Each structure stands twice: as structure tokens, then as C-alpha cells.
Amino acid sequence: MTITRRIFVSSLAMATALSVSFAAHAQDKGLIAIITPSHDNPFFKAEAVGAEKRAQELGYETLVLVHDDDPNKQSEMYDTAIARGANAIILDNAGADATVAPVQRAKDAGIPSFLIDREIKESGIAVSQIVSNNYQGAQLGAEKFVELMGEEGNYVELLGRESDTNAGIRSSGYHDVIDQYPDLNMVAQQSANWSQTEAYGKMESILQANPDIKGVISGNDTMAMGAWAALEAAGRTDVIVVGFDGSNDVRDSIKAGGIKATVLQPAYRQAQLAVEQADQYLTSGSTGQDEKQLMDCVLIDETNADKLETFALSE
Amino acid sequence: MRDVFHLSAFCLVAAIAVTGCKIVPDPDPTEIGSASVGQTDEARMEAFAQENWEARVLPVIQENLVPLDELRAALAENTDAAGEKFGLRPKGEANPWNFAVSGQGKIIEAKLDSRAAKLGVDTTGDGAADVTVQLGPVIRGTALRDAMPFIDFTDFRDQIEFAKLATALNGMAHASTPKPEGDVIGQDLRFEGVFTLRDPAMIELVPVMLEIGG
């Protein structure tokens, strides 16, 4: 007992000492800007929180900004970060093409960018691009969807924002699996631009035109939530819905017997990893990694939903 | 990867020289196979897979080939150590190991009438299938792509192009292995191929060599 207590006390003392030393270093290590899409989507919030926490642990001040998927706004935020003399920028970007210019501008100003979640269409400008293995994840989601559908029936696909590479790659991962089953028939395929409210509206009208649908596969969780709400309102809780992201909202829906499955992107860890690579780059001049890095996704269903919390799976 | 750029650039120059005054749009120098301007991702990646199959892909597999029994023993002891010793994977965390293996066993399951045809092989002699040999034409996963040290995601435009490359390499595996016919259950199978380690008890192999008989 005494020993346990002593260890506890000494580790507490050490933790205190560590946090003091972080605070002392905070001024020295400089500023990290964290720019993401709107925190209305918990996925982006988890990224921002994960990055901010890790940056502060490593002794940086942070500047958290939101670009709302507007490339112009993103460009202004890059200028803000540059003007504020940020040492590094962590970015979940507002478009694969439109983002190339601001990242280049920061690079020219000596500020390295570390991208998470979404790629840009050029390499050699950002220092790191760490993205979920969306293709692998989409195939996992599609395999589960096919199994839930019993390999047959009419289904709907909700697509993400067209300017985002992730919308295309997930759709192609879904179809590379689903299209192998001739009895699965896609009756509608529409973009709801990653948005919950848009998905609700689209789902309502799709359902009116196609009352005989059996399943909905969605490019992300917020659209899956919107679709599920519309299905519930129409009394169609028999429809199988599968999402993508691994949000707490969808986790709760799975546990309550609503949405059937989703695919977890390790968003929280990904954001932390980007900050760690930024720190390593700033202190040693190299991340020791390739620029573009993929992180595998994990299928979430009723068997493991319990272990999911804020885009991370506990062991 | 860089020598591929140079080679393609050279081909492009040669093509212009041969055809005389033809207006050719500037290729994007950062794109793989830039000589093939205007092609779809799919066609470009198929060409890349074809160009590299015998010259680079098969040699990597031969150099890293480990007998399945030996690999199993090493994995049972320590996954990471086995990965470091025999495995291939891209840099960065959260990338699973890929292994090039050789082995043999008895075919105890066969699904040949599918776009995703496969054989279930018992390699341990316990009567249960422990290796799934993917025959295709639809082959799952990215084991072949991710096992190649000369293939770096950074050299590709985006995940879409990179996914097409995995599909194209799987297509080469399908095209270069024989399609078993008739009743193959109970026959012996020798195989070489690549798999991504997810569950050591159930290996999903992408074969590059198959020999049935005996």
C-alpha cells in the first residue's frame, strides 16, 4: 500500500513538474495554426481538439481557425497565420485544387503545412499529407453493407462534396465491392455535400420516388444521420443505413438499433500525429516519413460500437 | 520512381521527334506516366502495372519470399519482429505488414463461378482452410501495391489514382496465374503470392504463381 502510494505521489509530482515545464516552454516553441472545416461536424471538431491538445502538450501556442469549406476564407486564414508568424500550419483543407496556392504561399514564407484528412493535388509543397485509407475503409463499409442487404435489393448512395477527393474515393471503394453483386441495384445516387440537413431533404424526395428501397450507403456519418432522420420520420426504420467516419452520433444510433454500421477514421490520432510530425520537422528539419501517408480505417458495428469515443477506438 | 519519369519524358520527346510537328500539351511532370496524356487513371495505372510487373514487381516478391511455415512460426513468436525480418510495408504508423510467401496445401474449398473466385486451402493439415487464394478477376485489397518498396504514395496524384494502381496490379496477378477448372477439391496446390497481415489464422493471398496437381 505504502509503495503504491509513494509511486502515485511521485508520479503526481512529476506530472506537475512536467506541466510547469510545458508552460515555461510555451513561449519558446512558437505558434501552430490549426485550420479545419466547421466544427458543426464532430469529425472536424475532434481533429481540431486533438491537434490543439497535442500542440499545447509539446509546448506550442495554438491558433484554431475554421474555413467552412470556403476556399476564399481558407486563403484569408492562411494569410492570418502567415501574418501572425506561425511556425507551422495543421490543415484539413477546403478543396484539392484550391488549396495548392495558399500552401505554396506559406511555404514561400517559410511556414510548413501538415495536411490531415484530405489530400491536395500536388506533392512537394506540404511537408506531410496524412490521410485515412478511404479506399480500404470504403471497401470495409461496402462489404458490411452487402452482407446486411443479403446481397440483393434496391439501394441509394449519398455522395459527399464533389470538390473533395474523399467523396470520389469512397464512392469508388463502395462500388468496387457492391457492383460485384448483380442483384444489388442502385436506384438513386445524389450528393448531399457532406451535410446532415441536405441529406434529410434529399432522402425525403428519394424515398417518395423510390418507396421500395432497402438500403442507403452514405459517404459520411453526418449525411447518414440526416438520411436516418428522414427514414425515421417516414416510418421506414427497416431501411439499412451504413455511414463513414465513426462519429459518436452514429455510434449511439448503432447501439440503439438505428444505423447499422460505419467506418472509423482515426481522426483524433491523425491530428495528433500531424502535430508530432510538425514538431519533429521544426526541431530536426525532417519528419522521417514520406510526405503522403495512409492510415487504415476500422469497421464499426454493434460488436465494437461500445469501444468508440471521439473518433478513437479503445483497446 | 524518378527513373520512370525520365524514361517517360524520353519517350515523349522521341514520340514528338518521330511524328514531326504535332502539338502535344505539356505533361504534368509530377504525374506518373506523364507521357500518356489524356488517358484515364485506370488506363495509366494499367500501363504502369504492365511496365513494372516483370521488371520490378516479381523480383521484389522473389527477393522477399518466405516459406509460409517459417513465417507462421515467426509471427507466433512476435508479430513486429517477424514484420521487421520478413515483411514489407509503407512508412508510417497504422500501416499493416505485407508478406511475400510460398507454400503448399490441399484445396478443400473452391468458388470458381464468381467474379471474386477463390480457393480455400488447408496448409496445416488440420482439415480446415487457412489460406484463401484470390483468383479474381476481382481481387480484394492492396497487398501487392503496398508490398512494393519502389511504389510511394507521394508520387501519385491522389488516393483515386493510387487505388487504381492497386486494382491494376491485382489485375496483373489474375492475368498471370492459371484459372483452375473442373473439380479441384482434394488436389494439391503450390502457391507464391502476397498478403496483408490482418488475421494470421486466415490469410487472403494474392497469388503470382499457382501449380495445381498431384
Automatic annotation (TrEMBL), chain A:
Gene3D superfamilies: 3.40.50.2300. One of its GO terms (molecular function) is carbohydrate binding. Its main location: other. InterPro entries: Peripla_BP_I, SBP_2_dom. Residues 1-26 form the signal peptide. It is found in: Cell envelope. Keywords: Signal. Residues 32-283 form the Periplasmic binding protein domain. GO terms for cellular component: cell envelope. Belongs to the bacterial solute-binding protein 2 family. This is D-ribose ABC transporter substrate-binding protein. It comes from Paracoccus onubensis.
UniProtKB/TrEMBL annotation, chain B:
This is DUF2291 domain-containing protein. InterPro entries: TM0957-like_sf, UCP033535_lipo. It comes from Paracoccus onubensis.
